[in-house]
Each structure stands twice: as C-alpha cells, then as structure tokens.
C-alpha cells in the first residue's frame, strides 16, 4: 500500500464527494440511493486505487463504477407493488416554476432506460465529451451519440428539451 495514493484518494473523496453524490442522484433519482451508490463505488475504487495512474483516471474510473453499479442495482430491483396500510402523503404543490421544471425533468429522466439516462447525465449534467462518456460506459462514441439522441427525443415528448439544453456548472 502506497501512503501517497491513500492521501491522493482521501483528497479526491473530499474534493469530489458532493459532485459524485449529485451524479449519483441523477443516475438513481433518489438521494438515499445516491449516497449508497457513492459509498459502494468509492469502496470498490479504494481496492483498485494503486493501479490507477492519475487523479483523472480516478475520477473516470469512479464514474464508470457508479454507472455499472447503478445498472446492476436496477436489474436486481423488484418492480412490483408494495402493500401498505396507509397511503403515502401527497406532495404539496411547489410555488416556483424552476422547481417544477426540475421535478418534471427528473421524472422524465426516470422513464428512460438506464444507459440512455447515464449518457444524458454524463453529457448534459456533467458536461463530459462523448469520447470520455464512451470510455466510462464501455461503449463506442457512436453508441453514446445514438443514446443521447434517443434520450433527447424521448425528453422532447415530455416537452423538456429546453431544461437540459444548457449544461449545468460543475462544482470544483
């Protein structure tokens, strides 16, 4: 074990945890699952940190692990009904249009297939180039382009294309 790598990994976690958590939220649609996803991914990355050459590789590898882990979780998830004694409370109507738009966008993203959703999140929310997205997702650049195109077409059906046409600013 290299103490320098341990320190580099700790700095990476301190500096990028919030951004990774946001990325996880966009992949899963739920904050508690996003937290679990980040923790699981960082645990997996921890064991491979010494084989990674640079901090950029650490970032890319972490995102790859998050996408793959999210996909595995989704495949295992049972999608049936869960009986309850009481119906859940309905959300109060939000007062602000931007919050409504964000909620509609997240709901529309949740309807997309996982890989299409991941491609859109990486492209428009993380503002990554197509080549890097292809590397993270383990596919070709053409697959990324077609996934993004299909995803945008589906979001157009929800009339939400303007909500994601401008990339979100990354946290430092």
Instruction: Find the structural class using helix and strand composition.
Output: mainly alpha
Question: Which radius of gyration do the C-alpha atoms yield?
Answer: 17 Å
Separate helix tally: 7
Give the amount of beta strand, in percent.
under 5%
* Strand runs, count: 0
The biggest sheet, with number of strands, parallel, antiparallel or mixed sense and barrel status, is: none
Low-confidence stretches: 165-172
Order of helices and strands: HHHHHHH
Average of per-residue pLDDT values? 81
Cα(first) to Cα(last) distance is: 28 Å
**CA-based shape:** globular
Helix content class:
55-70%
Give an overview in words.
With 172 residues, the chain is mostly helical. It has 7 helices and no strands. Helices cover 68% and strands 0% of the residues. Helix 1 packs across helix 3, helix 3 packs across helix 6 and helix 6 packs across helix 7. The longest helix is centred in the N-terminal third of the chain and has 26 residues.
Summarize the entry for a quick read.
The chain is 68% helix and 0% strand. The chain is mainly α.
Salient structural properties:
172 residues, single chain, mainly alpha, 7 helices
How is this fold's topology laid out?
Layout: H1 3-28, H2 31-48, H3 55-76, H4 97-110, H5 114-125, H6 130-137, H7 141-157
């Amino acid at each position: 074990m290299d103490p320098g790598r341990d320190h580099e990994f700790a700095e990476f976690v301190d500096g990028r945890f919030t951004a990774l958590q946001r990325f996880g939220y966009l992949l899963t649609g739920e904050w508690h699952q996003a937290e679990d996803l980040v923790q699981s991914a960082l645990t997996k990355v921890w064991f491979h940190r010494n084989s990674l050459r640079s901090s950029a590789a650490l970032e890319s590898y972490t995102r790859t692990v998050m996408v793959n882990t999210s996909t595995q979780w989704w495949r295992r998830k049972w999608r049936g009904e869960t009986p309850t004694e009481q119906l859940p409370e309905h959300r109060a109507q939000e007062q602000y249009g931007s919050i409504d738009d964000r909620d509609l966008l997240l709901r529309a993203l949740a309807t997309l297939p996982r890989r299409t959703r991941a491609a859109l999140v990486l492209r428009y929310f993380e503002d990554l180039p197509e080549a890097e997205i292809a590397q993270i997702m383990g596919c070709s650049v053409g697959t990324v382009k077609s996934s993004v195109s299909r995803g945008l077409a589906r979001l157009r059906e929800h009339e939400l294309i303007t909500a994601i046409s401008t990339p979100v600013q990354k946290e430092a």
